[in-house]
Amino acid sequence: MSLKTLGQFIIEKQNDFPYAKGELSRLLRDIGIAAKIINREVNKAGLADILGEYGAENIQGEAQKKLDVYADEQFIEALTKGGECCYVASEEHEGGIDLSRHSVSKNGKYIVCIDPLDGSSNIDLNVSVGSIFSIYRRKHTDRPITMDEVLQYGSEQVAAGYVIYGSSTMLVYSTGKGVNGFTLDPSIGEFCLSHPEMQIPLDGKTYSVNEGNYLKFPQYIKDYIKYCQMEDSETNRPYTSRYIGSMVADLHRTLIIGGIFLYPETQSYPQGKLRLLYECNPLAFIIEQAGGKAVSGVERILEIKPTHLHQRTSIVIGSKHMVEKVEEFYAGHEEQV
Ligand code: P6P
């Protein structure tokens, strides 16, 4: 495959959007630039004094590590300078950041929701972490941005993607016409197309869930986990259990080889733990574009009505047939109630 950089690919695909004037292309490139800068720091985190508690706490009440803050700053800076983004909702900020007050961004057409460094508690353990982004079109450019413009359904995303800082650094994204993966070539400092037209297998042999929460799961989830563990050669069971505890890493594996990832509601997180706007919606968009499925248990993730920036949801996501099996267990449970 001849070398094709992210920039070349974005421009080439711009023709997929007849009315595109290049704004989304520039926005995606801005995100790619931030990812390369963050990658540089993530890769040397063990060396720099960037490890350790930053002292502050983010709105999740979690100790904010310096790398979280650094990653957030890089995305905000790249999006502000790029001028295509008028508003950012970030895991690291309680409220959104209205960039439209900056002259360069006042006509920005896009709203970006980001988890700048997901799984950052794993940084000190040298486990893969990731950045997740979700892009919406601003609905009204003739008035100040309102929260209802930010709280759009996941199905209204114009683009979404993630960066995984792992054994190699990859950027995987979709603009609604399939999923493409780019691997960072450090020798030239470019993301290069390495995984064109990614498709998630309809079936997999891996299930991914924090089984430490088993006793707190709803009954239909407990029943499904037992189903995964039962011997049945026709359906390749028992499945293999794999849980990294970094959503981007667990989802990337699921996208590549198939499988299912579950973070159900528990007593500790009655709405589920993972965030709708900047974790579940973008990853659900990607997985659906790759031929998979993503539900909360009761409904399609992309059809959940957002009500606030840091809203949580339960999620079951991955290979289409595996998610449908969980839905059967849910329906069966509903009948029993
Ligand atoms: P638990 C990381 O903190 C994160 O937000 C996701 O990346 C990950 O999937 C999940 O939380 C892990 O949560 O409760 O299993 O440690």
UniProtKB/TrEMBL annotation:
Superkingdom to which the source organism belongs: Bacteria
* Keyword Metal-binding tagged: yes
Could you tell me which InterPro entries the record lists for this protein?
FBPase_C_dom, FBPase_class-1, FBPase_N, FBPtase, Fructose_bisphosphatase_AS
Sorted UniProt keywords: Carbohydrate metabolism, Cytoplasm, Hydrolase, Magnesium, Metal-binding
Give binding positions for Mg(2+) 2.
D115, D118, E279
One short Pfam family name for this protein?
Answer: FBPase
Q: Does the record bear Kinase in its keywords? A: no
Question: Where substrate is bound, by residue?
Answer: D118, G119, S120, S121, N210, Y243, K273
So which cofactors does this thing need?
Answer: Mg(2+)
**Subunit structure as annotated in this protein's UniProt entry:** Homotetramer.
Please identify the protein, giving its name as recorded. Fructose-1,6-bisphosphatase class 1
Q: What is the scientific name of the source organism? A: Sphingobacterium psychroaquaticum
